[in-house]
Amino acid sequence: MPQGQGFQWPPGTIPERGLLVAWSTRQLAELAGTTPKAVRHYHEIGLLDEPERASNGYKRYGVSHLVRLLRIRRLTDLGVALADVPAVESGDERARQILRDLDAELAADIERRRRMRRDLAAVIDNRAALDMPPDFKTLADDLPETQRSLLIAYSSILTPEAMAALREQLSGPRTDLEAEFAALDEDAPDDVRQRLAEQMAPEVRRQHRDHPDLADLGLASHRERAVAESVAVQALAEFYNRAHLDVLRRVHSILVENDTAESESDDAPQ
């Protein structure tokens, strides 16, 4: 006996073919777990055939419509776009390619959600990691608030390679010099600023040598140079006080002077 026909049907419930009960649009939608609006849309785009109408003009849907509607829902639940349903049903090479592309999209989405879970786990363990860029969560406790804010701003302009170089640069232990610079008061005297600049200049030079990706903002950014520079300048002005900015300008001047002196020495006659 064919499957589905061996159920114990209550007496009198097996109809004659001419006595089949028809469903309305709402009833069909409920059976298929969708909405009347979706059923009408499937009619409009040609995925679902129009049913016969009763003498009063109402639509009369049958089991064939229910089966068709459930097939459409099955494909859309798998992520198949409505426009691709006919092609997927054809079973040809295009159908297989559509399904392969869909599988690749799902794999990428799964990986994205895994990253989200890792980030959430970091935030659960450490609230300070909430606003840190990806892959910087473990540094949240070690970085001053100013540097965390700068990192967030820089993440909008730096390439992944530059962000990786910055992460490596920040992964080392904090030095006393960095702590002193971070705590620098806006009214710090000139001699303190100059001493800090002279002590910081060799370290900045070493960082440029070890991380050339960060030496040129135009090359380190995936934005136009003017845009990248505007973000960097505004971020420094926003999160550093005037003494910090003065020390950074002095560091830059020392580096330029050293470069000029080295260049002149190289050009001098032997």
UniProtKB/TrEMBL annotation:
Q: Where is the HTH merR-type domain?
A: 22-91
Q: Which CDD domains match?
A: HTH_MerR-like
- Keywords from the named record: DNA-binding
Tell me any Pfam family this protein matches: MerR_1
* GO molecular function list: DNA binding; DNA-binding transcription factor activity
Q: What is this protein called?
A: Mercuric resistance operon regulatory protein
Please give the organism: Streptomyces fradiae ATCC 10745 = DSM 40063
Gene name tied to this protein = merR1_6
